[in-house]
Design a protein that fits this description.
The chain has 431 residues and is an alpha+beta fold. It has three domains: 140 residues, Methyltransferase, Cobalt-precorrin-4 Transmethylase, Domain 2 (2-Layer Sandwich); 70 residues, no CATH class; 181 residues, Heat Shock Protein 90. It is built from 14 helices and 18 strands. Helix 3 packs across helix 4, helix 10 packs antiparallel against helix 11 and helix 11 runs antiparallel to helix 14.
Length: 431
């Protein structure tokens, strides 16, 4: 059995980098005993322990930390040679500060580690770095993922990456870099239409560098000068319509019209909406308009004539509420759940919006809080860009509170919310 982490110190977290650095450099007390350390070293390296003579290559150290964090945590001890002898480090204060910098600047998301300096009677000192993996997945700054297998670390291959991410279901799925994309997979017109909304002097398309803008200006890609790894958010927001479903088929949305008032009704038409988020939004609104009437004000009631045909009337809905419900679907869906599809069901008297959303940790307190605008955004980058007028959707954004309030006023019936089985359902009734 591999040995797990051996220390139980308190982790210090601060919003201030100077305070964080000061804490790490000036820890007042030793938190690891020499006996614990020696017992750990005698067992040699395994899945949860790595031994280093010194800190000489920050890039390799970052990879090792990422591997441990992605494999449920572990410890790196500096000052121990391959024969398990303690040689110590000559500059433990520098090692401590450099480890803090690596965890903060070279790893995404940043780690807040526990670091100990342990002194021996011989005068030798070692540094122990303890890591947890609470916010998996972790990657290096250049977009590479590593896992630890026994005493070795290994980079997660492109073929393995999707399966591994599906297994751990990371909350920050929008930040996952996609290693098969190129600049040609992005819609330059959409990207620069967005950029020009902020700067009238934005460069012409001929002078535009897609990878630089996505990586340096929008933080939607990672990698160095020679590498370009766009994130899931970058693809969904600005990818070409034909490439998005090929690379991320789980992003497709099913929109259907039923003849009846529940899911057992007869299906009239269903389409699968594909493409980037702007295209999906416009396509979904057009489908909804095909079968309903959207208005900003509730229409006056029309008198029914004796000769009117016996058929269900088109439902009337508040335009801004429906638009906001579609927007919320696209920006708040849990992209890590590949088996649950985002979908819209249109019935005779209601529209149902169904989105993948992990139930665990979300219900019941969070399900009440979102009604008052207190959100738990899974995709903050997508939300920040998608809801900007410059992206191309010029409608008011009021979130779920606006949908609940305005829909109830429009139809006289309160919308319903259901959260179960990793699904979030919102049902708006016709007026």
């Amino acid at each position: 059995m591999p040995r797990r982490r051996f220390r139980h110190t308190q982790r210090f977290e601060s919003n201030s980098d100077p305070s964080f650095h000061e804490y790490l450099v000036n820890q007042p007390t030793q938190t690891t005993t020499r006996t614990e350390l020696l017992r750990l070293i005698r067992g040699g390296e395994d899945t949860y322990l790595e031994l280093k003579v010194k800190l000489s290559n920050s890039e390799r150290i970052a990879q090792g930390i990422v591997a441990l964090a992605n494999t449920d945590g572990g410890t790196i001890i500096f000052g121990v040679n391959d024969q398990l002898r303690i040689e110590g480090v000559s500059n433990p204060e520098w090692v401590l500060a450099e480890l803090a910098r690596i965890c903060r600047d070279e790893i995404v998301p940043p780690l807040v580690p526990m670091i100990d300096t342990i002194a021996f009677d011989s005068g030798k000192r070692v540094v122990a770095l303890d890591i947890d993996g609470k916010r998996r997945p972790y990657r290096t700054r250049d977009g590479r993922f590593y896992l630890r297998f026994g005493a070795e670390k290994r980079e997660v291959s492109r073929d393995e990456l999707s399966a591994w991410l599906n297994e751990i279901r990371p909350l920050g799925f929008e930040n996952i870099p996609l290693q098969t994309l190129t600049e040609d997979d992005f819609d330059d017109a959409l990207l620069w239409s967005f950029a020009s909304g902020f700067d009238d002097n934005a460069p012409n398309l001929g002078l535009y560098n897609t990878s630089d803008f996505l990586r340096k200006d929008l933080l939607l890609a990672v990698g160095n000068v020679d590498e370009f790894f766009p994130t899931v958010a970058g693809l969904l927001l600005f990818g070409k319509n034909e490439r998005v479903p090929e690379l991320l088929p789980r992003s497709n949305v099913t929109v259907a019209r039923y003849s009846g008032e529940n899911g057992g009704a007869q299906l009239i038409e269903a389409v699968e909406v594909k493409g980037n988020l702007l295209t999906q939004y416009e396509s979904m609104i057009e489908f909804i308009k095909r079968y309903t009437d959207l208005a900003k004000e509730k229409p006056k009631r029309r008198l029914a004539l004796v000769g009117d045909p016996v058929a269900a009337a088109r439902g009337n809905y508040h335009y801004y509420s429906v638009s906001e419900a579609v927007i919320n679907m696209l920006i708040h869906r849990d992209l890590a759940l590949r088996e649950i599809r985002t979908r819209i069901n249109i019935y005779d008297n209601a529209i149902e919006f169904v989105n993948p959303r992990r139930t665990s940790g979300f219900s019941p307190p969070a399900s009440r809080a979102i009604r008052y605008g207190i959100t738990q955004r899974l995709n903050p980058q997508i939300a920040a860009i998608f809801t900007r007028r410059e992206y191309g959707i010029n409608v008011p954004h009021g979130g779920l509170p606006m949908i609940l309030r305005q829909s109830a006023r429009f139809s006289g019936r309160k919308p319903e919310i259901y959260i179960a089985n990793d699904e979030f359902k919102l049902k708006i009734y016709a007026g």
